[in-house]
Amino acid sequence: MKFDSSRPIYRQIIDSYKKQLIRGELKMGDKILSQREYAEQARINPNTVQRAYREMEALQMVETQRGQGTFIIATEPMLTEIKLEMARDVLEYFIGEMKSLGYTYAQIISMLEEEEKKQGGGF
């Protein structure tokens, strides 16, 4: 996994798991990498991974069962909420960046509509 230096790594780990859940790559009951395995694969500090896993447990995305591993426990309503939250974050970033470039709301909408046509429509 390649990390963005502008955001905390533990948040990027959480977001990566959220995206996998939303895309259906991970499902309820699936076992995820141990903290040690993740740290070794990603070549990052195990404490960073531990923080991400603790946060995911607090969010009730995962549950760690002593001696067995860490498992996905996210429910369908939670997945809907995660998807909406991530979409809002992307939109907030996009709109902020476009405004910083001097575009108005109307111009942003117009550009989105043009791009949709280029890509064949059907959002």
UniProtKB/TrEMBL annotation:
This protein's record includes keyword DNA-binding: yes
GO molecular function term, any single one: DNA-binding transcription factor activity
Keyword Transcription regulation attributed: yes
SMART domains on file: HTH_GNTR (SM00345)
Domain HTH gntR-type: 7-75
Record's keyword terms, sorted: DNA-binding, Transcription, Transcription regulation
InterPro entries: Tscrpt_reg_HTH_GntR (IPR000524), WH-like_DNA-bd_sf (IPR036388), WH_DNA-bd_sf (IPR036390)
Stored Gene3D superfamilies: Winged helix-like DNA-binding domain superfamily/Winged helix DNA-binding domain (1.10.10.10)
Superkingdom, natural source: Bacteria
Protein name: Transcriptional regulator, GntR family
Organism: Syntrophomonas wolfei subsp. wolfei (strain DSM 2245B / Goettingen)
